[in-house]
Amino acid sequence: MFCPLFSAFGPEPITQRLGIGEGRVLVTTDVLYDRRRIAELRRALPHLDHVLVVRSDAAAAPIAGTHDFEALMAAASIDFEIPPTDPEDMALLHFTSGTTGRRRARARHAAVLAHHVTAAYALDLHPPTSSGARPIPAG
Q1: What DSSP letter does each residue of 56-121 carry, written as one string?
Q2: Of 100, 111, 110, which is closest to residue 17 (Cα–Cα)?
Q3: Which DSSP category does 132 fall into?
Q4: Nearest C-alpha neighbor of 41 from the set 8, 20, 14
Q5: For 13-49, what is each residue's pLDDT tens digit?
Q6: How many CB atoms lie within 10 A of CB 55?
Q7: Are 137 and 121 in contact (CB under 8 A)?
Q8: Is 63 within 8 Å of 21 (Cβ atoms)?
Q9: Which of 17, 24, 45, 68 has the least CB density, counted as fewest CB within 10 Å?
Q10: pLDDT at 53
C-alpha cells in the first residue's frame, strides 16, 4: 500500500500517518530526513523497517541506518515480476484531514485502474516522450 506524505509535514503528522498505516518503508531526502527528525521518530514506529534516502549531493556521506536510494536503484535488475494482487487488496492510503491525521480514504487495486483511465482520458495526461518532454494536450 502506498501513502503519500506532504513534504512540509513536521514530525507529529509523519509519525501519525506512518503509525496508522503501519508503514514499513519511508522514501525521503537527506534534507527532509534531518529537518523532520526521522531518526528520532523511528523509535515510535515499530513497523518502519527501511528508510530509503535520496541524497541531494551524491558525494555526501550516507546516513547511518538508512539505505541509499540511488545505489539500490543502480543495483536493481531491470527485470521484475510484479507479484499477483487481488483487485480488492489495498493499494493507496490517503489522509484527508490535514490537521488530525485521523480521517483516511483507502483505495483498492481495482480503483487504481480507474485513476489511470481518468488521468489518460479526462485529464489528458500522457507519459513523457523519449526526449523527456511531456506532450502538449490537444485542444
Answers
A1: SSTTSPPPTTSEEHHHHHHHS-S--PPPP--TTSEEEEEE--TTTS--EEEEEHHHHHHHHHIIII
A2: 100
A3: S
A4: 14
A5: 889 889 988 999 999 999 899 888 889 999 899 999 9
A6: 19
A7: no
A8: no
A9: 24
A10: 94
Tens digit of pLDDT for each residue in 104-136?
777 888 888 888 888 888 888 777 655 555 555
User: For residue 56, what is its C-alpha cell?
Assistant: 541531494
Q: How far apart are CA 66 and CA 27, in angstroms?
A: 10
Report phi then psi at 97, rounded to 5. -110, 120
Q: What's at 73, amino acid-wise?
A: M
Element (H, E) at 50: strand 50-54
For residue 137 the three cell numbers come to: 494536450
Q: What is the pTM of this model?
A: 0.73
DSSP annotation of 27 reads: E
The single residue listed with the C-alpha cell 501513502 is: 3
